[in-house]
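Work Package 4 report. The design task specified in the project plan requires that, given a folded chain encoded as structure tokens, an amino acid be chosen for each position. We show below one input record used in the internal validation round.
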């Protein structure tokens, strides 16, 4: 899906960063699939009207989300706690009707959040196009349909189940190119007193930490309070609260309601002011970001090449979709990184998209620890550092690239 115009305002996009040809972020593959591997030109552009940073070109949703989707949300214990808390907060907000509440979640994946509502006996519906993960959700008692959410589906849900008290989404709104149609669907799906609560990686964190690896095929947008406000105002809705989250290296939770239904919290204006101060509403910020991205690449290649020249072994930790951007943009292959360890069975035994580094199970990392581990799953750093004390005690060292390229310890 190509555009030279903003998907939200229709105004021309200005290119901010060009990452060259990139494969699918989650396109782990077997050697027989190397020839003809899919690649597309990945660049992000900015629109000063909608203030949306967005991919210029994106593979089709069906190419990315299907019955072999490689990302299972529940692989992270920490995210299970996070979504348990999220669910409890929604239950305690006072927005769920007392008689027969109804909660809809977009991109519920393996049911990591909705299972909390299912366990509490709350009527719910998950919408999850990737059939393999949707099946896991259903097997946990989470009522899930395997579809792409859109305005029409929202109308169908209203006809069958009625309007929702709460519409939830985590790390999925930023995946959807037809976001205007989705926002319009949300406005129809929600009761007059309903709220939409969603969280996604936050543009402010990406700029501040030069975490350019948040940019990959699935993340068609990186949101800010400015851009979210612009998007929902078009639908007669408003941003009533924002809450910063530590997850995924810095995320923002946005609370949206029909205009006038609830007071707007001070947090919204505070964040809008902060965003103006750091320039998230201006193109100039992204020109500077582009230079920071290039510098980060130069430093990472220098660090890895230097370590390798000393005869040390480097492995990757976490075959994240984010790592696909780093590896392909920096041109890092098996000359520098021997293998990537990952706990997700569907990725193991395959090779990383584009640069074809072997993906090994965690047991392999334990049995054959490298001298240095590049922390591709840096967004799970706390959880990983806590369980990898032995790696450090035995002389292993971590390489990170955010907020700057360095060796830890
Ligand atoms: N909410 C989970 C999963 C995030 S990954 C979490 O935070 O861990 C994004 C998920 O959104 C994938 O499972 C993908 O299949 C799903 N998705 C992508 N496009 C979608 C759409 N249009 N409607 C509903 N779900 C979608
Ligand atoms: P994410 O950054 O998109 O959440 O993906 C994290 C990936 O890292 C996922 O493939 C699972 C993997 N992983 C590990 O291998 N070990 C771990 O301890 C954690 C938390 C994740």
């Amino acid at each position: 899906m190509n555009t030279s115009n903003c998907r939200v305002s229709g105004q021309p996009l200005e290119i901010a960063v060009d990452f060259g040809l990139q494969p699918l972020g989650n396109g782990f593959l077997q050697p027989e699939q190397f020839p003809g591997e899919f690649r597309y030109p990945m660049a992000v552009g900015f629109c000063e009207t909608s203030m949306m940073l967005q991919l210029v070109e994106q593979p089709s949703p069906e190419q990315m989300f299907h019955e072999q989707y490689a990302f299972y949300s529940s692989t992270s214990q920490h995210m299970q706690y996070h979504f348990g808390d999220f669910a409890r907060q929604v239950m305690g907000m006072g927005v769920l009707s007392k008689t027969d509440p109804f909660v809809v979640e977009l991109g519920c994946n393996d049911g990591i959040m909705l299972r909390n509502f299912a366990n509490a006996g709350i009527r719910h519906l998950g919408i999850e196009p990737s059939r393999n993960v949707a099946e896991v959700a259903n097997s946990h008692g989470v009522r899930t349909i395997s579809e792409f959410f859109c305005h029409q589906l929202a109308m169908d849900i209203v006809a069958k189940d009625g309007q929702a008290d709460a519409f939830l989404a985590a790390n999925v709104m930023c995946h959807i190119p037809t976001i205007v149609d989705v926002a319009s669907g949300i406005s129809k799906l929600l009761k007059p007193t309903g709220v939409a609560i969603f969280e996604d990686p936050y543009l402010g964190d990406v700029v501040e930490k030069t975490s350019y690896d948040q940019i990959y095929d699935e993340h068609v947008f990186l949101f800010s309070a400015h851009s979210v406000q612009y998007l929902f105002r078009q639908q007669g809705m408003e941003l009533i609260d924002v809450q910063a989250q530590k997850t995924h290296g810095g995320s923002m939770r946005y609370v949206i309601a029909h205009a006038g239904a609830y007071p707007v919290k001070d947090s919204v204006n505070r964040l809008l002011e902060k965003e103006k101060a750091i320039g998230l509403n201006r193109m100039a910020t992204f020109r500077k970001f582009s230079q920071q991205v290039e510098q980060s690449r130069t430093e990472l290649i220098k660090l890895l090449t230097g370590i390798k020249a000393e005869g040390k072994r480097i492995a990757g930790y976490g075959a994240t979709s984010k790592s696909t951007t780093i590896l392909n943009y920096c041109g890092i292959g098996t000359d520098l990184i021997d293998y990537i360890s990952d706990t997700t069975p569907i990725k193991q035994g395959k090779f990383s998209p584009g640069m074809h580094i072997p993906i090994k199970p965690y047991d392999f990392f334990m049995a054959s620890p490298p001298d240095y581990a590049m922390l591709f799953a840096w967004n799970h750093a706390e959880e990983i550092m806590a369980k990898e004390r032995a790696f450090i005690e035995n002389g292993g060292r971590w390489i990170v690239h955010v907020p700057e390229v360095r060796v830890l310890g």
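The mean pLDDT is 96. Validation will be extended to a larger panel in the next phase.
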